[in-house]
Amino acid sequence: MEHIEEHKYKWYAFGCKDATYLMGKKEYVPLSFSEKALLIFHKLTCKYCRRFAAQIQKIKAFFRTSAQESSLTLSAQKKQSLNQLITEITKK
Ligand SMILES: [Zn+2]
Q1: pLDDT for the residue numbered 74
Q2: Would 22 be classed as within a structural domain?
């Protein structure tokens, strides 16, 4: 697996870009204690990143159930429901 560089974050300069980066990173490798703390703190103060985190969870849940089917392609019906899900979670 590709090595992901450890960033040195300064808490006062930690922004949405860093938060979304860490939310992606944690899907592949466990976050360090300070990364987790920064992310939790950022989400407490930023409604946009809270919303983004919730959207990721919903899309992950969708693919978790879709992955149980053996095929790697999405059926027309699955595509339709993914489309609906994305429309629904992004319109708020
Ligand atoms: Zn943010």
Answers
A1: 79
A2: yes
CA of residue 1 to ligand 1 center, whole Å: 28
* CA proximity to 38, closest of 59, 17, 58: 17
For residue 56, how far is the Cα from the chain centroid? 4
Q: How far is the CA of 10 from the centre of ligand 1 (A)?
A: 15
Q: Which residue is it, tokens 């090595």?
A: 3
pTM over 0.85: no
* Structural domain harbouring 62: 11-91
Task: Please report whether residue 3 resides in a domain.
Answer: no
The number of distinct structural domains making up the chain is: 1
Distance 55 CA to ligand 1 centre (A): 14
Q: How far is the CA of 14 from the centre of ligand 1 (A)?
A: 9
* pLDDT range class, residue 45, cuts 50, 70, 90: very high
| CA 30 remoteness from chain centre | 14
- Ligand 1 centroid from CA 82, angstroms: 25
